[in-house]
Amino acid sequence: MLRIKQSIINQLLKGCSLDELKKAVTTAIALEFSTIPPYLTGLFSIMPGSNQRASALIQSVVTEEMLHLTLASNILIAIGGNPDIVAIGRSLVYPGPLPDQIDNDLQVGLASLSKPQLKKVFMAIERPETKPGEILPGEEAPQPTPVDPGEFGSIGQFYKALLTALAIANANNPGLFSTPRLDQQLDISQWFPPVPTAPAEGKIRNLDDAALAINTIVIQGEGIQTEDDAHGNQEGLRLEGKPRHARLSERILPRHRHGGDGGASANEIYPGDGDGSYAHYFKFGEIFYGRELMPDPEAVSGWSYNGAPVPLDESQIYNFLPNAAVSDYLPGSSASVAAQRFYDAYQMLLTSLNQVFNGKPAAMDRAMGLMYQLKLQAQQVAQCPVGGNVSNLVAAPPFMLIR
């Protein structure tokens, strides 16, 4: 899972200036955006018409990351700021850690979809915070989140601290949300599937709306809640060395629940995202384990990847040049020409998104068209061999100009 510098969290919990608050929200925007190139690279590596279930799962995660970016941007707009999407996009370097506030133990690279990329990058990014003894579906033994006291906290803790900072700022300055610039905020109902957990239209009018937006980001990404409250005394499950069931917020409505008397135990996890689907970690888990996640009363977590097949035919995956930049390709070659066209389309997309969140939300129409163009350009890049006659290595769509 991602971990963020504890000093940032501590500053938010103490309260901060408006400029510092805007900077923290911008960090959230950068974090959400930084996951999109790795996920898109995996998605674009799937050959057209193949691995359709895996493709749909990854596409749904990308869509939700765009939703999270939108909700965070709407919060920033509501408190008087605007994100620089172009600067955020151009600042990202792969392989490497995500934005500079993030623990560099997790090196994120751009590569074709594979079981290692799913486990070591996609699921590592989205892995929920767990405590000693807690176990997630698919795990054979507990894998507690690494703890570095005073150094790093979880992304979930960061978002909670961000909400605390917003509450402190709102208490000290009741006018914080008095001019939310609703006309500049993007109406998510026009561009995303229904999101019951989000504020109306995804727009931020007050602190309550900001809380709903942040809750949506957290539960769609991490899903489970491991706080030691809201479900009564469970000390019997918390004995040293004993597996414990991770838990979700009671507000979350899972896709599946156990049947039978009384339904599922409150002690078992519900890996839902509040919108009738699963949180990102569990969607990627379905591809990695090759099966849909289903309730399983015999499993410690209450869930197992034992449902319908989710096949991943790796013979139908392009073998992309990893961590590609435009500069990797010989000038004038077919790969270089196709890569430059992809990168140009990506830059146009960054510019359009920047317009969307800087006073021109109607520019989202052009941005959506550019997202489709990006997919078509990626398919053109993938037709260019780069490994010589004895290799199936092909050019990859570059999200970087040089490296």
TrEMBL record:
<protein>
    <recommendedName>
        <fullName>Iminophenyl-pyruvate dimer synthase domain-containing protein</fullName>
    </recommendedName>
</protein>
<feature type="domain" description="Iminophenyl-pyruvate dimer synthase">
    <location>
        <begin position="26"/>
        <end position="231"/>
    </location>
</feature>
<dbReference type="Pfam" id="PF12902">
    <property type="entry name" value="Ferritin-like"/>
</dbReference>
<dbReference type="InterPro" id="IPR012347">
    <property type="entry name" value="Ferritin-like"/>
</dbReference>
<dbReference type="InterPro" id="IPR026820">
    <property type="entry name" value="VioB/RebD_dom"/>
</dbReference>
